Amino acid sequence: MNHSLWRLLGLALALRLVLALCTDGYPYDMSCFVAWGNKLAEQGPAAFYSEGYFADYPPGYLWVLGLVGLPVFAGFSSGAAALLGPTGGFLTTRH
């Protein structure tokens, strides 16, 4: 693959990561991501798509959500806040 394309993709990724640290996500989405990550950490992937539980993301995304929930699994009460930086105080709000 062309080196210019790799540089462009690397620059785009770096920009995306900087923007992710500087901006807040949509509150409803962020609450869902944290709740889903915590559920994965506490109950495992086999129990994720259970009856009466809202989850509309595909199974492949469970790996990402599981990483968000790792701090809960490791015993940290802050949950995703340990991974998600400046927005962490907002993210641990339970609804």
Task: Describe, in plain words, how this protein is organized in 3D.
- With 95 residues, this protein is mostly helical.
- It is built from five helices and no strands.
- The protein has helices spanning 3-22, 27-43, 62-73, 81-84, 88-91.
- α2 packs across α3 (62-73).
- 19% of the residues are buried.
In a nutshell, what does this entry contain?
The chain has 95 residues and is mainly α. Helices cover 60% and strands 0% of the residues.
Tally of individual helices: 5
Gyration radius, rounded = 15 Å
Shape: elongated
Assembly context of the chains: single chain
Name the features.
mainly alpha, 5 helices, disordered C terminus
Please write out the topology:
Blueprint: H1 3-22, H2 27-43, H3 62-73, H4 81-84, H5 88-91
Helix pairs in contact: 2-3
